[in-house]
Amino acid sequence: MKELLQILSMDLFRSVVNSNSLKLCQLNSLISLLFKEGVQFNLSFTPATAASEATATLTIYVNPKVTISLNISFDTGELLGIF
Questions:
Q1: Does pLDDT of 54 surpass 70?
Q2: Residue 9 falls within a domain, yes or no?
Q3: What is the Rg, in whole angstroms, of the alpha carbon atoms belonging to the chain?
Q4: pTM for this one?
Q5: Which residues contact 80 (CB under 8 A, 6 or more apart)?
Q6: What residues have CB less than 8 Å from 16, skipping those under 6 apart?
């Protein structure tokens, strides 16, 4: 729990929460922090279509009864250069 509180108070996490869209490198950094601290999470990704932008949902499990879910939008141009 202490590790999760440290992550939630970091500038990176606050910028993710306060942003309308996210850069892929920011999401990668956040996932790396969650791995490093052993925080349980789930990430689901929906690719862009002709009608909608790519989105992801990051769910962080605080305890069995409490979760934090972040719905993330991506700039489509950001995803094109990842390979």
A1: yes
A2: yes
A3: 13
A4: 0.72
A5: none
A6: 22, 26, 27, 30, 70, 72
